[in-house]
Write a structure and sequence with these properties.
Blueprint (H helix, E strand, L loop, with lengths): L5 H10 L7 H22 L6 H7 L6
Length: 63
């Protein structure tokens, strides 16, 4: 099975919206999808920070 193009993915996203969706709904879903895909790409490339380090940096640990 050939991967979908971005255009095909956008059509699919829009096809799943309710009939009363707004441009703001479309923009929001596109932004969320882009953020998720960027995060997955970072994860695959090992460009991640362990949650323990983030908690420590934010002062949310007992250490």
């Amino acid at each position: 099975m050939q991967p979908q193009t971005l255009k095909q993915q956008a059509h699919q996203l829009i096809d799943h919206l309710p009939d009363d969706a707004t441009w703001r709904d479309v923009a929001y879903l596109a932004a969320v999808r882009a953020d998720i895909e960027a995060g997955l790409a970072d994860s695959r490339a090992s460009r991640v920070t362990p949650v323990e380090d983030v908690l420590k940096e934010l002062g949310l640990t007992d250490e």
